[in-house]
Amino acid sequence: MTSTLTISRLTKTFGGVRALSDVSLRVNPGERVALLGHNGAGKSTLMKVILGLIAPDSGDISVCGGAPGKAQARDRVAYLPENAAFHSALTGLEQVTYYMRLRRENPAGAMDLLARVGLADAAKRRIGTYSKGMRQRVGLAQALIGHPSLLVLDEPTSGLDPVSRRDFYELLDTLAAEGAAILLSSHALTEVEARTDRLLILSGGKLVAEGSMPDLRRDADLPVAININAVNGYASDIMAALPNAIRHNGALHLTCAQDEKLDTLARISKLQGKVADIDVVPPSLEDIYSHFSRRDGQ
Amino acid sequence: MITRILATVITETNIARRNQWVLIAVLLMVLFSLVLSAAGSAPTGALGADRLSVIVASLTSLSVYLVPLVALLMSFDAVAGEVERGTLPLLLTYPVARWEVLAGKLLAHTAILVIAIVAGYGAAAVIAIAADPASVSGLGALWRLTWSSVLLGATFLGIGYALSSLARRSSGAAGLAIGLWLALVVLYDLGLLAAVVADNGGTFTTRVFPSALLANPADAFRLFNLTASQSASVAAGIGSAAASIPLWQSLCSILLWPIASLGVAALAFRSVEP
C-alpha cells in the first residue's frame, strides 16, 4: 500500500534550536494517527512542514505523492489549525463559501457542510459573534471540503464540549473509512487512545515512541500497582508474605513488573481469608506518555 | 485561476462593506469634491477657463492627498491583519497562489476606490455643468483625472500591501503607512522646495528637480494632470515646473508606478513566512 504521507529523517532548526530532529514516519490511507507531545515538542512545526508552510532543513517528505506545499499536495490536503481563526466580519457561510471556491467546489454545498458540524442555525451570523467551539467547527467544516486524502488536524477537539467531541470522532471514522489518512495532535490521551489506530510521541523534536496503545504499553513495561485491603488483624501476615508491600492509610500497596503480575496474584490468592479486597491498577495512559516523553531526561 | 481570484474579490468586498470602508471612502471623496467645487468657483471669470477645468485643477491637488490616504488605509491591514488574526497559515494551505490572493485583494480595493473617485468627481462635474453648461469642455480633463487617480490609488495600494507584508503587525503597518504618506505626499515637496530655494537656479533646479518630481508617484500624478490640461496657470505650487517636463515622461511615471509597487508587494508577500 502506498502511504499518503511519508517522512524520512526530517530535521528543522530555528536559530540554532532543533525543533525537529531526524523524524521519520508514515501515515497510510484510512489510518488515524495521533501525534502526542507536550507544548514545544515540535507537533505544530511538524504539521507546518507537512503543509509546506515551513521548509525543512533536511529530510524527505512525500505528501500524496508530491512535495509538500506544491499544488498537487495542496489540492488533496486539508488543515485545521490550532485555535482556528477567521475574519470576524464574515459570516460562517461566507467563510466556508470562500474556501469552497478556492478548492473549486460548488459553494451551494456550504450550508450542508455547516449543518454537518452543527452550525446550520448560526451560518448567517458573523463569526465575530461565535464562541471558541463554534469557530473550531467552522475550522472543521472547511477541513471537510472536497474529500481530502490527508487531514492534518492540530488539536481539533480543543474548545469542543464532550458531545461535540464524540460527534467529531464519528466524523473522523467516516472519513477514514472512505480512505482518508488522518494525522491529529492532541493532549487528550483518553480520547485518542480509543479513537485512533496508532500513536506517535514527540519529545524535544524527536520521535520517541510509535505504535498502537497495547504496543506502547508493552514497550513501556511500567510496573503494575496492586492495592490490598487486609481482613482486620491480618495486615502483618500479608506483609510478611509479600515483603515488597508498604502500608499506607490502612491499606497495603505493592508494585510489580508486568511479567511478574500473575505470580504475584498467585501469591496473594494463597492468602485467601486474610485479604478482604484487592485492586490491580495498570499503568495509566498518562504514566505511559510521561515514560516516553521524559526518556531523554526532560 | 480566475475562480480563485474572484473568490478573494467577493470575500474582500464583503469585508470592506461590513467595515464601512466603501461608505467612508465614498463620503470622503464626495464631501471634499463638493467643498472644492464651491470654493473653486470664484476664480473662473478672471481666468477665462470653464468652470469644470478650474475644478479639475483643484481636484488634482485634493486627490494627491486623499487618494493615497484612502488607498493606504484600505491596504495596510491586508497582510498584517491576516498574520495577526492567524488566518494566513490556513489560507496558504489552500490550492491558491499568493499572487492570486493579492490580486483578489487589489481588485476589490481598486473597485472601491473607483466607486469613491467616480462618486466624488461625478458630483463635482454635475454641479459644474449645472451651473455653467460650457463646462462640458472640461470633461476630457476630468476623465484623465479619473483614470490617473485610479492608477495613483493602485500604486499606493501596492505600497500598502508591501508595508503590510514587511511589518507583519497591523499597528506597525499602520504607522509605516502614515509615515510613508507624510513623506511622499507632504514632506517630499517641502524638501524639494527648500532645495530649489537654496539652489537658486543652479544644477539642482535644472537637472535633479525634474527627475525628483517624476520619481514620486504623487508628484508625477499632479504633473501629468496639470501639464495635460494646461491648467498650470490656475494651479499654485509646482505649476511652473510642469511646463519644463514633457507630458510623456509624467505619463510613463504614473503608468510604471503601479506595476513597480505591486511587483514589490508581491515579492514582499512571498517572503512572509506564516
UniProtKB/TrEMBL annotation, chain A:
This is Cu-processing system ATP-binding protein. SUPFAM superfamilies: P-loop containing nucleoside triphosphate hydrolases. It comes from the Bacteria. Keywords: ATP-binding, Nucleotide-binding, Transport. Gene3D superfamilies: P-loop containing nucleotide triphosphate hydrolases (3.40.50.300). Transmembrane segments: none annotated. Residues 5-229 form the ABC transporter domain. InterPro entries: AAA+_ATPase, ABC_transporter-like_ATP-bd, ABC_transporter-like_CS, ABC_Transporter_VariousFunc, P-loop_NTPase. It comes from Litoreibacter albidus. GO terms for molecular function: ATP binding; ATP hydrolysis activity.
UniProtKB/TrEMBL annotation, chain B:
Coiled coil: none annotated. The chain crosses the membrane at residues 21-40, 52-76, 106-130, 142-163, 175-198, 247-269. Pfam families: ABC2_membrane_2. GO terms for molecular function: ABC-type transporter activity. It comes from the Bacteria. GO terms for cellular component: plasma membrane. This is Cu-processing system permease protein.
